[in-house]
Design a protein that fits this description.
This protein is of the alpha/beta class. The protein has helices at 35-45, 74-82, 114-124, 134-137, 142-150, 152-180, 182-202, 206-220, 222-238, 244-261, 266-292, 297-317, 321-387, 406-412, 436-439, 442-455, 476-490, 502-506, 532-543, 550-563; strands at residues 2-10, 13-19, 24-28, 61-69, 90-98, 103-107, 110-111, 125-129, 394-401, 419-426, 434-435, 464-468, 494-498, 510-519, 522-529. The chain is built from 20 helices and 15 strands. Helix 7 (182-202) runs antiparallel to helix 13 and helix 12 (297-317) runs parallel beside helix 13. The chain is elongated and about 160 Å long.
Length: 564
């Protein structure tokens, strides 16, 4: 419920704080005192339209704040959690509009987009009056009202329908995408298979290229390598006069003679003998290498062909053997994914069929429940309307379910089911019922709203109801009936009512009077909570007798007593 409403620089209101209580809160006052301005402020704090014209003359901005106490509707808790706003002991809404037209919305001190702010407001309170019956005129909410009255079973079925509808929509979209891209996907599969096969047939490994290039270099230079190996061997062994081995061998003999006499040369002799051994070993290695050098043009041509094939594939798919292998890996993964889509299309068709059957069953069950509920709901509302003086009006709720074959019915199902729900009314006997939005007048809509809210009182989750002069133009007996209905609604939620009817004011749990006063060139609005004698005087005045008249006071006291 709203615990506190604070209005600053809004219209003719400079600053006004209104403390509200559980039950029925009634605001009375002279015409033009500012009562409807308070309703406009409440509408603004709930996310309604607010214009720069509402900023008080001479002020920079208008500001409205409201404090809502627990418990709050579950939807508000979910909305705040989804917006990252922490829920405290109380909920604070704040709305500002500057003289420059810029507005700011805050929830618990956090700035939020207007749409988020408005969504919270729609869950917290509902305003009904002669000039503010949009929610009742919107056909889209009629189905919601009927489901609320139907209760937990309908709401559970509706949730199942909504979830099945969501899943079916996703399945259908995925399957449509798969089918639309089927030819393109098959072409891509064939192309990827060709590429993978082409790479696999080549049997390329990254290390192969380096080995082939080295072998090619050797074969390409076979003659030169043989000549160099032969030359080196000849220098070591082949020339008798100048062979390195022969010369070094004679040097070893000579140093051996020196060391036999001079022992200091013994170490040098060992080094020379080691050099001679190494040189002889090098000679034998060169001889082996020389004999291994092959002149094989056929093998060279094979290597060149192999390198050319690898080069073409690298140019085509990667640039390097490593990139080529990476490309193949990527192609294999994409190929597996495309083939999986082809395989999953069959499974998806089965899943789509299964969820469609479930959706039809749940939507059908929900439709039957709505049709049964609509009869009872229509009778209950019609009874309330008669009590409120609308004796000639015939009220009904029509539930039109989709017909035709399975395909047509499936196409007609939305998140709320397959039904078109609309409130209908006949204003005069013998006239056909017409959609409410086309024929009902402001006064009728106000009393119809009260009737519906009375019927929904134990089912509706909105914690605050605001009624703005819905009693306009009614007689005394009907005023008492409206008061009784409001009292009944106020047993389940907070009701705020602006009224000129004394019977409604007498039923209030909290009676407040709006007073406008003029001081020189300025106008101010303030509020008084009426208790005891002050309340009796106000009721006497509303009845139309002098507030000092003892009889009038007795009547007012009796009205208060009878309304309890």
């Amino acid at each position: 419920m709203i615990r506190l409403l604070e209005i600053s620089d809004f219209g003719i209101i400079g600053h006004l704080e209104i403390t509200l209580y559980p039950g029925l809160n009634v605001l009375t006052g002279e015409t033009g005192a500012g009562k409807s301005l308070i309703v406009e402020a409440i509408d603004a704090i709930l996310g309604g339209r607010i214009s720069v014209d509402m900023v008080r003359l001479g002020s920079r901005r208008a500001r409205i704040q409201a404090v809502f106490s627990q418990p709050l509707p579950p939807g508000v808790t979910e909305l705040l959690a989804g917006s990252g706003i922490e829920l405290e002991d109380e909920l604070y809404l704040s709305r500002e509009i500057g003289s420059d037209g810029r507005g700011v919305c805050r929830i618990n001190g956090s700035m939020v987009p207007l749409q988020t702010y408005r969504s919270a407001g729609e869950l917290l309170a509902d305003i009904h009056g002669q000039h503010d019956t949009q929610s009742l005129l919107r056909q889209s909410v009629h189905i919601d009202m009927l489901d609320i009255y139907a209760g937990a079973e309908a709401l559970s079925l509706r949730q199942q329908v909504s979830e099945s509808y969501r899943i079916r929509t996703e399945f259908a979209a995925t399957l449509t995408d798969i089918r639309e891209r089927s030819e393109e996907r098959l072409r891509r599969i064939d192309y990827l298979r060709f590429q993978v096969n082409e790479i696999d047939e080549a049997g390329i490994v990254p290390e192969e290229v380096a080995a082939l290039e080295e072998e090619r270099n050797i074969l390409s230079n076979a003659e030169r390598l043989y000549a160099l190996a032969d030359q080196a061997y000849e220098e070591i062994y082949g020339r008798e006069a100048t062979a390195a081995v022969e010369s070094l061998s004679r040097a070893v003999d000579a140093v051996g003679g020196i060391s036999a006499v001079d022992s200091k040369w013994k170490q040098d002799l060992d080094r020379l003998e080691s050099l001679l051994a190494d040189l002889e070993d090098y000679g034998r290695t060169l001889a082996g290498y020389r004999s291994s050098v092959e002149f094989d043009p056929q093998r060279l041509a094979q290597i060149q062909d192999r390198l050319d094939r690898i080069g073409r594939l690298c140019t085509k798919y990667g640039g390097t053997p490593e990139s080529l292998i990476d490309y193949r890996s990527s192609a294999v993964k994409e190929l597996a994914s495309l083939e999986e889509q082809e395989y999953s299309a069959g499974n998806l068709e089965k899943d789509l069929h299964d969820i469609s059957i479930r959706l039809l069953q749940d939507a059908g069950a929900l439709s039957r429940l709505r049709q049964e509920t609509a009869v009872v709901f229509s009778q209950r509302v019609a009874g309330e309307l008669k009590d409120l003086g609308l004796l000639k009006q015939v009220f009904s709720v029509t539930v039109s379910a989709a017909e035709g074959d399975e395909t047509h019915r499936l196409e007609s199902i939305g998140p709320k089911g397959m039904d078109n729900v609309e409130m209908m009314i006949s204003l005069n006997p013998g006239q056909p019922a017409m959609p409410l939005r086309k024929v009902a007048s402001g006064g009728e809509l106000s009393r119809l709203a009260l009737s519906i809210k009375t019927v929904l009182a134990e089912h509706d989750m909105i914690p605050v109801m605001i009624f703005d002069e819905i009693d306009a133009g009614i007689g005394g007996r009907i005023g008492g009936t409206i008061a009784e209905r409001m009292k009944r609604i106020a047993a389940h939620r907070q009701v705020i009512c602006i009224t000129h009817t004394p019977q409604i004011a007498a039923a209030a749990d909290n009676h407040m009077k709006i007073v406008k006063s003029a001081d020189n060139d300025s106008v101010s609005v303030h509020i008084e909570r009426l208790m005891d004698d002050e309340r009796l005087r106000e009721l006497s005045s509303m009845i139309g007798v002098n507030d000092d008249d003892v009889v009038g006071r007795d009547i007012a006291a009796r009205m208060i007593f009878d309304s309890k």
